[in-house]
Amino acid sequence: MSQQDILNLAKEGDARAIAFLIGQALQSFGVTAKASREHDSVHLLLEAEQLPAEEACLRVAVKGLQRLQPDNVYSVTIYGRRSGQQLPAWTQTVELKKRLTSAPVSAAVAVNAAVAASAAAASRVPASPIPVALPKLEKTQNFTTGHTQTPEKSPPKPPKIPTPKPANQRQQKPSRQPELARTKTKKSGISLGVLSLILVPISGVVLASQLYKPSTTATINPLTSKPAVQKAISTPAPAPATIPLPAPKSPSQAAKKPAAVPATVSIKAVGDMIPGTNFPYNKLPANKELLLESVKPYLKGADILFGNFESTMTDYPYSSKAGGGRMLFAFRTPPSYAKIFKDVGFDILNVANNHSYDFNEQGFKDTIKNIDSNGMKAVGKRDQIVYQNVKGVNVAFIGFSNYGEVHNSLLELKAGAEIVKKAKQNADIVVISVHAGAEGTGALNVRNKNELFYGENRGNMVLFSRTMIDAGADLILGHGPHVTRAMELYKGKLIAYSLGNFLGYRTLSTAGALGQSLILDVKMTPQGNFVSGKIIPIQLDRQGIPSVDNNFKTVGLIRRLTKSDFPNSGLTIDDKGQILKKSK
Q: What strand order describes the sheet that includes 90-95?
């Protein structure tokens, strides 16, 4: 096949020809490209021995497609995956042009979002490079948040994830793609001269330095007897936000300067974390560094990583809960454990929760000191606002709980609104961390009323969240029920009503829904408006150690809860966990 034949096929929207062109541009850097076509979208899988760098690969793929202008291709979803792994480490969906017109328009990147074409697509597995069948959710026993391990059924084996054939192999013509009838069987190479007319020229030195970021290698985690991921060299580049489509230029003009990739703000967030306790007796792991190794690659890549630290970090000997009732648990983690959270990339740790005073005021102060002294920021003191500047965007964090004497109280709506307004005066984006709601598998559903748990008023999360957004908040991150909950889009702002358990070494029950968790990846404009998101599904083992769930059980659970609790939520969640705004 001649060079012109391949170019013509790519312009006609042949996914294999597109993959061949992009693969040629990335071949010298060890990256291979594979592709498939789904209606008016192309799914492009980029693989390498070391994880392909997100920003560099996007520059090549997106600008190449923008110059090709392939027929009837309106968006592309790009997956970056390390060779031998099933799940991609990063995903980007880019809208190449509006579906209502063929004229070029600015491309808006729906970061880490799937292309959900219709409501029917939610009930089937799309023909993409990483389709995953969603298993049916099993009914679970109604456990509370008891801290003893309850036997549970072994999780089902992960489904096989087919990988698309290499770009230089001809597949059988799909009936829904008549343009493939013109595909020829003869094969030949294509010169880099042709590619230079299509792809954005990026110097070898710059591209190589971005492509070969440190990656990860698999080892055996002695805590779980399952494969875990161990640090090798570094992490993928942060995700870009919006890629504008420039006016057509001549090849000489295109070679002078690659298009800039403006920034968006990305936040990854997880729920409750207890890395073990030495009170009242030792429940600490033999090797604390391995607790988060399996999920470490999936925690990387965001501008800010947030989590709820639901223990104390102190050596103080006297607990405020000693001799309490059967639902009173006191957790004490050695100060040295702060390093494991810093090492996996945490920036903000919330301490506004019902365990922050387990060891009195001294334990609370020690916890904050040990977090802050390890290069992170603790948030949760009353009237406290913590600021984090990323890419020139100032992000404010405020912690709330139902313990109003020491934290900002979610029960005091007027006072909460005032502190949000104060934060908004100095910040572009305001993020609320709130520990609220009843606990256990009986508390999966969100109700627009006050929730009680063992006589405690745990607040009305719907009323609180919407009130804070009315006051100027941009993102609500809920935690506390120990199960995941529904999500809602309110006035263009995302509310995650509960992120569930994320780490509970020998302290939190992981039976049923208590063991289904997630890493929430949210992309926002610099003004705080929701752009897109992603649910990275997590499963906790019986010891409370997290790993990526290839069965996507959490995705199915949150989809079901969102549809039932907020049928007009303004969100669509596909079966791979991509979160998008509903089209009007």
A: 32-38, 41-48, 75-82, 90-95, 109-111
The two most distant CA atoms of the chain are separated, in Å, by: 81
Q: Is 132:161 a contact under the CB 8 Å cutoff? A: yes
Residue pair 498/479 in contact (Cβ under 8 Å)? The answer is yes
Q: Encoding tokens for residue 372?
A: 């802050």
**How far apart, in whole angstroms, are the C-alpha atoms of residue 475 and residue 469?**
8
R_g of the chain computed on alpha carbons: 24
189 HSE (CA, 13 A, CB side): 6
Could you tell me if residue 458 is left (phi over 0), alpha (psi between -120 and 50 degrees) or otherwise beta? alpha
Instruction: Indicate the SS3 state at residue 388.
Output: strand
Q: Please say whether the beta carbons of 80 and 112 come within 8 A.
A: no
What per-residue confidence (pLDDT) applies to 520? 98
CB 309 within 8 A of CB 331: no
Answering whether pTM is above 0.70, one says: no
Q: Residue 338 pLDDT more than 60?
A: yes
**Could you tell me if residue 540 is left (phi over 0), alpha (psi between -120 and 50 degrees) or otherwise beta?**
beta
Give the Cα separation of 105 and 502 in Å (integer): 41
Model confidence pLDDT, tens digit, residues 467-482: 999 999 999 999 999 9
Place of tokens 């109003």: 404
Q: What is the DSSP letter of 423?
A: H
Q: What is the mean pLDDT of residues 93-103?
A: 64
pLDDT tens per residue, range 68-81? 888 888 888 898 88
